[in-house]
Write a structure and sequence with these properties.
Number of helices: 12
Mean pLDDT: 90
Largest sheet: 6 strands, parallel
Oligomer: single chain
Distance between the termini: 65 Å
Length: 334
Amino acid sequence: MAEVTLKDVARASGCSIATVSRVLAGTRPVGAETARTVREAAARLGYRPNHVARALRRRATGTVGLVLPQITNPFFPELVRELEHALHAEGRAVLLADCDDDPATEAARIAEFLDRQVDALLLIPVDERRSRDAVADAARRVPVVLLDRGCGPGVADSVAVDNAAGMALVLDHLAAAGRRRPWFVGAAGTTTAAAERRAAYEAGAAVLDPPAPGRVELGDFSVAWGRAAVDRIWPSRPDAIVCANDLIAVGALQRLRQLGADVPGEVAVTGFDDVPFAGLADPALTTVRQPVSELAAEAAWLLAERSEDRISHGGAAPSRAIRLAPRLVVRASG
């Protein structure tokens, strides 16, 4: 069966090919009655746009590459979903790559996307320092937006939650509950999320107890590390365990339950991110909620702005950094 063309739709609707193109592409305003006639003709004939031909005409592929550190982190799938929805609404498709927390693999995935001529890149960097060169090189070639984590000032546009504000919410909540012996369990390395949450704890924990800023254990963002960290700190009997993400917090809850600890009677446990299973933990996890849909919407907006800037000014505008307000979700764990 022959492919239905714009010429066929024009003939069936009694409109010019140019008018049909404007209606179906949405590039210029067309009268409501004319638009209705064209769309009805297109539907009747079964017209489908040829995205390859359109890409060749516009010198754009309509695709955005998305590189994640590790798709198994439960925070990322929800973010991917929201990004896909936000970009699909703009007529863009998302190509996804996982780099398994390895900067070398990350650089290779970025290069592969650039070779495929994606129009833009969304990145959650593996490491602030070791990801920087690959990210900076990509940002010189296509619009780039960093999500959740950064690579230092001026490298690329970025959007993330205000980690310091989120940790302040946790510490204020613990102080109001009378907790005075907190311990922070976080992740080593130089991702900005890990570093900012740790720094915010160290800056604010003295309000609960002067020695508290020094009570820090660092591992990685995993359930296993949460369990191991409890074994290290439980002999000192903290009355609050402040975790840098929900995976660590769930591991901490599991180990505390095995040890027979009363949560939250003896010790409160808090997380960060509010991943889907946080409310299903036992007990349900008090945590900081990231505004995931806002992160995705702002990222799509930044990509559009940077794309326009490249067209109008050759990409000379300074990089933008957007920080979104988090919200504390209080549940049974403390």
